[in-house]
Amino acid sequence: MSANKRKSPESNASTGGKFVYREFGNNDNSAAIERPHAELPPNQQNIRVQASRKGRKGKTVTVITGFQVKPETLEALTKQLKAQCGTGGTVKEDSIEIQGDHTQKLVQILAQLGYKAKISGG
After folding, report:
1. Residue 26 has pLDDT above 90, yes or no
2. 33: in domain
3. What is the spatial distance between Cα 106 and Cα 119, in angstroms, rounded to a whole number?
4. 66 pLDDT exceeds 70?
5. In this structure, what DSSP letter does residue 3 have?
6. pTM of the model
7. What is the CATH number of the domain that holds 91?
């Protein structure tokens, strides 16, 4: 009666990690989750540039939204804008965040790249 009825992790590994029961086919649903991205030319995109401090402990960041490009293109554009401003930044979903208040400078840079950029907010 001293036998433990629970299966140890080793016993699960010995089965090769096979599932005993699976409701809906395979677990590889990355194609279903992936969002389609329509790559529009820069002159057809309406870009909004706005300085924000909300939820950032008082630190100002410049948020650039309205992009309709592939993630790879957005990453390359982010790298270029960070280098032009001399600051850090990141890509979050379909927007770019650049550290500091660089609204005027970013609007000029985006206009030179062919985007229709406007300053948004106050």
Report:
1. no
2. no
3. 9
4. yes
5. -
6. 0.69
7. 3.30.780.10
Q: Which of 97, 111, 89 is nearest to 43 (CA)?
A: 111
CA angle 73, 78, 79 (to 5 degrees): 100
Residue 42: pLDDT over 90: no
Among 34-43, 55-64, 92-101, name the one with the lowest average pLDDT.
Answer: 34-43
Q: Is residue 111 part of a domain?
A: yes
DSSP 45-110: -EEEEEEE-TTTTT--EEEEE---S-HHHHHHHHHHHHHHHTS-EEEETTEEEEES--HHHHHHHH
User: What's the domain range around 108?
Assistant: 42-119
Is residue 22 in some structural domain?
no
For 12, which DSSP code? H
